[in-house]
Amino acid sequence: MFTLAIYTGSLISTCLMPELRHSIHCFGRDTYFPLAFGVLSIIMLTSTVILVCGKNMYVKKKPENNILTRIFGCIFGNTTEIPSGQGRIYIYNGFDCNVFVQSKSLHVQHQIGPLDMFNVSHTVATQNVSGDVGVVGITIGFETKCSFVSDNYEFNTTLTIIKGKEISYHLTRLNPNIIALNRVGIHDNLVKEKFGNPNLRILVDHTFDYNDNITLADVDHNSFTSYSLSLFRGMNFNAIKTGKYNVFYNGIMLPTPTMDIIPAAFYTITLQRNGNFIGNLFCGL
Ligand SMILES: *[C@@H]1O[C@H](CO)[C@@H](O)[C@H](O)[C@H]1NC(C)=O
Ligand SMILES: *[C@@H]1O[C@H](CO)[C@@H](O)[C@H](O)[C@H]1NC(C)=O
Ligand SMILES: *[C@@H]1O[C@H](CO)[C@@H](O)[C@H](O)[C@H]1NC(C)=O
Ligand SMILES: *[C@@H]1O[C@H](CO)[C@@H](O)[C@H](O)[C@H]1NC(C)=O
Ligand SMILES: *[C@@H]1O[C@H](CO)[C@@H](O)[C@H](O)[C@H]1NC(C)=O
User: Fold this and answer.
1) Where are the alpha helices (DSSP H) in the chain?
2) At 161, phi and psi to the nearest 5?
3) Which of 45, 166, 174, 230 can pair with 188 through a Cys bridge, CB separation 3.0 to 4.6 Å?
4) From CA 112, how far away is CA 271, in angstroms rounded?
5) Ligand 5: which residues within 6 Å by Cβ?
6) 132-170, pLDDT tens digit by residue?
7) Taking each helix axis from N to C terminus, what angle separates 2-23 and 33-53, rounded to the nearest 10 degrees?
């Protein structure tokens, strides 16, 4: 279409210009340059004006979201028991790039991959302790590929550790301007539901609307259940039914592989949409 327009244009001008030259006197001049360039300029200006005027009528296509899929191994078994006297921290990277965590107190220097998760267990220090609660400093750094922050951006923050508990932190955007290591609830409440149902929580950033819905479509039973995202507002665990599920967000299937949800397990889905729309699934018992 574009090419056709260009060739048509050049054909018309080739034929039209000599015609104009013969029929119009060139503003009293001998050359026809003012005519040739003048006519072109006027036509160009007119077309620009037409283009700008029609601005509101164009259908602007958003660039298609590039959908990535990653598979996470689910860890089941009794390996997740916290050593006595220690507490455990989980850090979920809510960004589609590598981040670095560094903490002298935790003896941690680690890279967390895009939308990946990292955990560390640590003795609750005797200093800065009130009861079984300790606070440690941590530095979060972003690789250059993280284009939403300036190069080598880092910030310092603190983590709370509770003896015998697991606390999750979600590195995410609280609003367009604030990136934070957001504590997920008071601590992970991994109490098995009395009917042995599995549990699910969903970690989202500020771009998600609590009116949105998450649908779990059971591939074996051809049934589906929709949950409002507001159910996960506190980022707490909610009981779901066992089954093999595909996950849909507002009717769009997420790139997570089919989730095999088994009884009494705890699952975490992180959703983010930084140009890419990604869902990741973590699970543990
Ligand atoms: C986990 O603990 C249960 C008993 O609570 C035991 O039967 C099972 O073998 C243990 N699994 C592993 C992987 O250690
Ligand atoms: C926690 O980290 C250890 C290694 O530091 C790893 O073996 C374990 O699988 C992790 N736990 C979970 C639930 O990811
Ligand atoms: C205890 O916490 C205070 C501030 O909350 C900090 O200045 C101090 O360095 C901490 N001490 C230790 C040993 O971590
Ligand atoms: C973070 O803390 C470290 C020391 O622990 C310091 O060297 C660094 O400059 C701090 N970074 C920021 C951004 O405040
Ligand atoms: C979920 O969202 C989609 C798209 O907004 C909508 O078509 C569908 O009806 C919603 N489902 C429920 C159960 O609210």
Assistant:
1) 2-23, 33-53
2) -120, 135
3) 166
4) 16
5) 213, 226, 250-251
6) 888 899 999 999 988 888 888 999 999 999 888 889 999
7) 140
